Amino acid sequence: MALRTAGSVLVAFLWSVAVVLGQNGWSVTYTTESICALKGSKVELTCSFSYPRRHKVTSTFWFTKMETGVEPEDLGVQDQNCNRVTYTKRRICVLKGSTVDISCTYIGYYSTTSTFWFRSDKSTPEDLTRDPGYTGRVKYTGTNEDPFTLRISGLREEDSAEYHFTFKTHNFEWGHSFPGTTLTVTGLQVKVTPAAEGQKTLTCSTTCTLTDNPTYIWYKNGQRLDEPTSQQYSSNMLVVWDSSVNIYSCAVEGQEGLHSPVVCFQVKVTPQQFSEYKTLTCSTTCILTDNPTYIWYKNGQRLDEPTSQQHSSNTLVVLGHSVDNYSCTVEHHEDFHSPAVYAPKNTSVSVSPSGEIVEGSSVTLTCSSDANPPVDKYTWYKKNVASTKASGQSYSITNISSEDRGEYYCEAQNGRGSMNSTALMIIVAVKQTSVMTAAVGIIVLVLVLILCLSGLMWFRRSTGGSDATADTQSVHPDCNSDTYTALNMRTMSPDYDTLASVHPDPNSDTYTPLNMKTRSPEYDTLANVRGLSH
Predict the structure, then answer these.
(1) Domain range 265-340, its CATH number among 2.60.40, 1.25.40, 3.90.660, 1.10.20
(2) Is pLDDT at 113 greater than 90 in this prediction?
(3) What is the C-alpha separation between 39 and 93, in angstroms, rounded?
(4) Does domain 84-185 have CATH number 2.60.40.10?
(5) Is residue 289 very low, low, confident or very high in pLDDT (cuts 50, 70, 90)?
(6) Residues 463-480 pLDDT 10s
(7) What count of other Cβ atoms lies within 10 Å of the Cβ of residue 438?
C-alpha cells in the first residue's frame, strides 16, 4: 500500500466492521518510521498490513491526524455515502503569466446536476466561471468518467489560493470543507551572490518549487546559451565575471516567453561634504541601453515631477536626517523596483544571557536595527555618562559590579541617518555566596557569645559557692567567745557537718581531749574554723 503526496506526517488506517487497528491480529508495518523531505517535493510513503482470515477489508485509506470522537478524513477524499473526489495534485507551483491545469476525478452515486470549481478563501463557494476576477481566463473540461479539469490562463500572483471542486445531485452536495489543490503563482528572479575572487554566481530562483522538475534556460545579451558552459554549476545557476557588462536572464524550458527581469536596481547613498543633504543614485548591475529614464519613489509614492533637489534623472538629493524611504526604477519597467533605502528604524537592545544579572558575572548587549543600506556604525552609551562606552554591534561587560548598574542604549547609523534605541536597565544583584558567607559569620559570632555567657555564669556560680564557705567560717570569729550566730541553711558549707559532729551538744563547753594519734581528718577542718593549731 503506497501514497504519494507532499511532505507531511501520515498514518495508514484500515477499516472493517467492529475492528480496532492493532488488536486481535490486525497490524500495519511501515517501511520507514520517519521521512524528511523538501517543501514542495514529492514523497512516497509505503506500508503493509495483515488481518485475520475470518475478516474482510472493505476499504483502505491514508489520513494525517486522528482526534477523539472525530472520523479520520481520507486524503482521497471520500464521504460517508461513498461519494469520492480525488485530486491529481495537492500542490502546484507555476510561473506568473503561464497556464495551469488543476484536475480531479469524482465518483457520485446519483445523477449529477451541477459541477464547478471555487476558491476556498471566498465566504461562500462561487463558480469561478462567474467570478469577475477570472473573466475570460477560466475553462472547465472533462466529465465524471474522465478527469474534471480547471484551466486558468494568464496567471497572476493574486491567483495563488486553494481550489476546490464540488458537485451536486438532487439530494446531495459535496462538502466544501474537504481539502483541495493549493496553487502558488511565482515569478522568476535572478539572484546575485559573490563567488570566487572576481566572480559572481547567478541563481534563477522562484518563491516556490516549480512543479514537474523544470529545466532552466540562461540568456546572455538576449541570446540563449544552448550549451552549458564550464562556469555553469547546474541548470539554475551560472557563474560570471564580476566585471562583465553582459546582460543575463533566465527562463524555464517550454515557457521561454516568461523571462526573468534582466536588471537589478540598487540605490547608492553618497553623503555631501559639509552639507546636511545626501545624494541618492539609482544604479544597475549591468549597462542599460536606449538611454533609459529613471523614476523615483518616496514612501511608495511616485515623484512625478523632478524636485529642486534632483540633479539628474538617476540621482536625487534628500535631507540626511529624513525618515522617508526612497526607491527607484526605470520607465516602462515599473514592476521592477529597487529595494528602498531608509535610515535605521526599530532599533532595540537585547541582553544575553537573560535573567538575573549577578555580581561578578558577564553580560553581552546586542544592538539590532532595520536599515537599508545596512547599519555601518553602532555606538554604545550609558545614561548620565558623557563619554561613549563602546562601538560595534555587541557590547560585553565582564566581571560586572554594582558600579555597572544603570541604563544603556545604542545608536545605529547608516548613510541615510541614525536612530537611538530605548534604554535598557541593568540591575546587578548581590552575589549569593557573599550573602551566605555573611550569614554564616553572624551565626558563628552568636554561638561564641552564647558560649562566653555560659562560661561567665558558670564561673560566677563557682565563685558564689566559695563566698558561702567564707560566711560559714565567720560563725566563730573569736575562739574564746561562746556567742554563736544563727546559721543560714542555704549558705552553709560542708564544714558545718564537721563542726556538728565535734560539738554534739551546743550548750556544753566541755571538750574531750584529742588523741593526736587517732585524730580524724575532721580535726584539721575544726582547727581551721576555731583557730586552733596542732
Answers:
(1) 2.60.40
(2) no
(3) 11
(4) yes
(5) low
(6) 765 554 444 444 444 545
(7) 11
Q: Which of 115-129, 313-327, 433-447, 499-513 has the lowest mean pLDDT?
A: 499-513
Nearest to 14 by CA among 46, 48, 43, 44: 48
Give residue 380's pLDDT band: very low, low, confident or very high (50, 70, 90).
very high
pTM (two decimals):
0.41
Spatial neighbors of 114 by CB under 8 A, at least 6 apart, are 167, 168
Please, which residues bridge with residue 61 across strands? 13
Closest CA to 37 of 75, 79, 91: 91
Strand order in the sheet with 91-95: 91-95, 181-186, 161-169, 112-119
Instruction: Considering only residues 490 and 59, tell me which one the structure prediction assigns the higher pLDDT.
Output: 59
Gap between the Cα atoms of 351 and 294, Å rounded: 44
- Rounded to 10 deg, the angle between the 432-473 and 495-502 helix axes is 20
User: Which residue from 186, 194, 199 is spatially nearest to 252, judged by alpha carbons?
Assistant: 186
Quick one: CATH architecture of 346-429?
A: Sandwich (2.60)
Would you give the end-to-end CA distance of the chain in angstroms?
Answer: 128
* 143-159 pLDDT tens trace: 666 788 999 999 999 99
| Pairwise CA distance, residues 317 & 280, whole Å | 6
CB atoms within 10 A of CB 260: 22
* pLDDT reported for residue 366: 94
| Nearest C-alpha neighbor of 359 from the set 434, 442, 430 | 430
How confident is the model over 413-431, as pLDDT tens digits? Answer: 988 888 999 999 988 887 6
pLDDT band at 21 (very low <50, low <70, confident <90, very high): very low
| Ranges of CATH 2.60.40.10 domains, the chain | 84-185, 346-429
Question: Which grid cell sits at 467?
Answer: 563566698
Can you tell me the distance from the alpha carbon of 364 to that of 267, in angstroms, rounded to the nearest whole number?
Answer: 34
| CB distance 222 to 286 below 8 Å | no
Amino acid identity at 453: L
Contact 264, 202 (CB under 8 A): no
Contact indicator for 61, 76 with CB cutoff of 8 Å: yes
State how far the Cα of 188 lies from the Cα of 161, in Å rounded to an integer.
19
329's grid cell: 526604477
